[in-house]
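Sequence only, no structure available. Ideas?
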Amino acid sequence: MDALIFAAGKGERMRPLTETTPKPLLACGGKRLIEWHLEKLAGIGVRRVLINTSWLADCFEPALGDGARWGLELVYSYEGPEPLETGGGMAKAMTWMDGAPFLAVNGDVFCDVDFARLPKSPDGLAHLLMVDNPEHNPTGDFALNADGRMASEGPSRLTFSGIGVYRPELLLDCRSQWQQPGIAHPRFKLAPILRAAMHAGKITGEHHRGQWTDVGTPERLAELDRALRKR
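Reply:
I predicted one. Tokens follow.
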């Protein structure tokens, strides 16, 4: 299985920290955020990780190298000076993949989930890891039904962790919705495509009740750093 780490965002809410350092390269608990992911991906047998970049893209390769220290091959997918959003970034990164399901992780989250427990072959087009709603997202993102299927609306709304396993068909089957004539790599969000697939019953999910942090502010980064150092 290949993996994709979303690392192209500007991290505007993290300024001034992200004026010189991309958010996934910020440190907490003695490691860069992205390094926690790379260690776990290597631990489950992933061998190639694509990292999409845009903001301060030149910082990544000097910091992470070619991935050899983790036994990984790192491929950097540069999106240009403006990020392509989650959907556009995923579509561009898929040009390096072999058509098999892949694991995608937001580079600016921390989660203690065991990646090995996620399905390597989702029952549908994607399998999403959901978490309890944090204070900054009290109404959640999607609903997880009792049968493990995801819905865009419902009583049991949870927050999407930014971690999921995807089949390339999720984007390939709806190319007419996001492709733009004359633009090789269009900019578009993934959420509307997920919602449409949920409506068709093609997205599954699970509820992770362990540690998860969306490192969206300097305060959350400092809090996570303290918690990891205590652990």
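The helical segments are 33-43, 60-64, 85-93, 169-172, 175-178, 191-199, 218-230.
Hope that gets you unstuck.
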